[in-house]
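thread: overnight batch results

M.L. [08:02]
morning all. the overnight job finished for the chain we discussed friday. pasting input first so we're all looking at the same thing
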Amino acid sequence: MEQRWGFMLPWCKVLHKKIKFKPVERDWDVWADQKYRLEVSLPMRCHFTEDSDGEEFELDMEWSGEDYFQDTFCQVREALALLAAVAHVDQLAWKYLLSEHCGVNLGKAGSAKLGRDIRAEYFLVLDQDEDP
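M.L. [08:03]
and the structure it wrote out:
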């Protein structure tokens, strides 16, 4: 697997720890079959932090700048598109790259969660209220 898909590793590195495999919570769903989605935390221009009183404030953008943000955002977008292409060609490779090189917890081997196909659909997180 590593030999065939090793060229994807630089893009997986871009996405490392940015994707989470989370259950979809729906009150109206009558079926017992649990659904999951891939949540992607996108890079942001500004980062917020809390002071000692718990008040949020915006950090200065000089440390990264617009060019850095655009480059990072473009890399994430390209990585997501390439991984989606892998998913359409080879589900086993898709799961392997997600779990082994992107840091996504897909469940234990043999679990129903891991046994089913994972669709290449991303839920994009644009505003983060919590620390990564």
